[in-house]
Design brief:
single chain; four-stranded antiparallel sheet
Length: about 120
């Protein structure tokens, strides 16, 4: 099994920054991709940013230029640096890992952007 533990969520003012972290542990041996999704109330869970095994990245258009995904040297921790946050970024952010065609999810961390 794979376990994903997120941290770093919280309340931030518009224009502020947060950095989310996700630590993966367990039976990790062949990661296809790691990244972040988010889900706002009443909306579907959408991709925010993903980093593939070759370090290629993909971002949602709504966050491109503001968010940056990165990975540690062991490639088992993924980060999401979020700058210039907007109220519409408010959502539960879920860490994501794909290994051998199986998707794994963290429990989510709430990011609230509000004055």
């Amino acid at each position: 099994q794979v376990q994903l533990v997120e941290s770093g969520g919280g309340l931030v003012q518009p224009g502020g920054s947060l950095r989310l972290s996700c630590a993966a542990s367990g039976s990790i041996f062949s990661i296809d991709a790691m990244g972040w999704y988010r889900q706002a109330p009443g909306k579907e869970r959408d991709l925010v940013a993903v980093m593939r095994s070759g370090s290629q990245t993909n971002y949602a258009d709504s966050v491109k230029g503001r968010f940056t995904i990165s990975r540690d040297n062991a490639k088992t921790t993924v980060y999401l640096q979020m700058n210039s946050l907007k109220p519409e970024d408010t959502a539960v952010y879920y860490c994501y890992l794909k290994q051998r065609g199986i998707n794994y999810w963290g429990k989510g961390t709430l990011v609230t952007v509000s004055s």
